[in-house]
Amino acid sequence: MADDRTAYDEKLQSILRTSAAIFAEKGYHQASIRDIARATGVSLSGLYYYFRSKEELLFLIQEHAFGTLEADLLRLLDGVNDPHRRLRLLIENHLRYFVANMAEMKVLSHEADVLTAEMRTRVNARKRRLTEIAMRILEELRPNGEIDLRVATFSLFGMMNWLYNWYRPERDVDVTRLAGDINRLFLGGFLQGGADLPKAAQQAVPGEERPSFWQS
CA–CA separation, 156 vs 142, rounded Å? Predict the structure, then answer.
């Protein structure tokens, strides 16, 4: 029974990996289950042994990716108390997974709003746990900081999650250097809280706060 379960899990992971690549290339709505059947070599009826719908397939990809990311992060943080070290571990864990899994990263970013009902709730709960971990670390780093924690937390994830748009492993720095550079860029601003910014950089842009693209 254990061997059967292992074979099932291995096959499911293979299907999820291939499906993520297809969703990343074609987009979720343009990709079909028939595309996935051709790419995996599994019949249509065979695929439905692993999932009941295309939406559930997307859910399984996201659930597996975020679950793996969270589990490894918790393992790395276990027993580490220094918030500077904890932040570096969070950043590098995130970047190592995303650089090594660019198709999955694109799917996680692009198809975030496709899921409905309980599947969306479960994936959002996973994402919320990751942001809460980051927010607690940032609060430990600067408990009375001037920068809003929510702004800081999502700015950090924005820096990391945007990678798939520009990062190219064959020409850019390696992931360890990448993590170090992002860590320094982020902490340089977060810990200073803008205290050393020249006046010209602190002044707000004149004009409307929420301008429209369209003339009224």
Answer: 15
**Which domains, from first to last, does the chain contain?**
54-193 (1.10.357.10)
Tens digit of each residue's pLDDT (9 = 90 or more) over 143-175 = 777 889 999 999 999 999 888 888 998 999 998
Rounded to 5 degrees, what angle do the CA atoms 127, 130, 132 make?
110
Are the beta carbons of 99 and 163 closer than 8 angstroms? yes
33 close to 45: Cβ distance less than 8 angstroms = no
**153, 135 Cβ separation under 8 angstroms:** yes
How much is the average pLDDT of 27-47?
Answer: 93
Q: pLDDT (tens digit, 9 = 90+) per residue, 88-136?
A: 999 999 999 888 888 888 888 877 788 888 999 999 999 999 999 999 9
DSSP notation for 131-178: HHHHHHHHHHH-TT-SS-HHHHHHHHHHHHHGGGGT--TTTS--HHHH
